[in-house]
Amino acid sequence: IIQDCLTSLDTCAKLWSLEKPVAPQQQKRRGPSEQAQFVLKSLNEIDNELTRGNAEASLKKAKRAMSVVQTWTTEDIPNKYELLGSLHSYIGRAFFILGDMDEALEHHRTDLQLAERCKLPEATSRALNNMGLTLAQTGQFAQAVEFWEQMIPLVDDGLEKAWLFHNIGSSSLNMKQYEEAKHYGIRCLAAAEEAADEKWQLNGNVLIAQAELKTGNVESSVSHFEKASSLARLTEDEAALGAIQKALNEAKQLLPDGEHL
């Protein structure tokens, strides 16, 4: 009702630290400092293109950067495979925007393999998230939930937890697993309250309300829709308020006679 449960948090993974470059007179070929500049410049450009919505340009730059990095050895840059994983992630995101989900999955899967190989929790979380988003986008909710559930122990930030639980709960709702949807709605709400974030408190309440309505718990559904309505007013979210009020009025019609407000 409120927003697409597949809306991605556009987070950038922390990448790597390069060794101190050797003195120029000791270099017989392009040294780490020049490689570092190339890497940072390339990633900056790739990210900027994605941020502006230029997926094709981002894809082209990421592929060009990957062709260069693949020629390097781990002596040239110790974090070569971490960098390749980041580039696969960018390429996967570009393909996602362009609507090629098969290619997106392939690159996010490679990113996941590299992250696990290098034992990088943040990169692993990033890849698991992108796998989940891509699978959910194609309606493969059960598989998406499997990847997102693997993320749970890797996530510490309260807002990210709220978003993750909401994604899992919304996918459960789509699969008509209403008790699971309610469970994750409650977890989403708790994480949002801990983070003092009213937007995600609103989303959590709506998810619980939807799940409760589907299982016939109309009074609880109405109560959570009312809480969401109050939060929408508090945050001055007129679009959300209109959608919530409509759902709330429909839910109230299902209350037993004499309980309508």
TrEMBL record:
The keyword tRNA-binding does not apply. The keyword Cell membrane does not apply. Gene3D superfamilies: Tetratricopeptide repeat domain. PANTHER family: OUTER DYNEIN ARM-DOCKING COMPLEX SUBUNIT 4 (PTHR23040:SF1), PTHR23040. One of its GO terms (cellular component) is axoneme. This is Outer dynein arm-docking complex subunit 4. It is found in: Cytoplasm, Cytoskeleton, Cilium axoneme. Keywords: Cell projection, Cytoplasm, Cytoskeleton, Repeat, TPR repeat. Its main location: cytoplasm. InterPro entries: ODAD4 (IPR040111), TPR-like_helical_dom_sf (IPR011990), TPR_rpt (IPR019734).
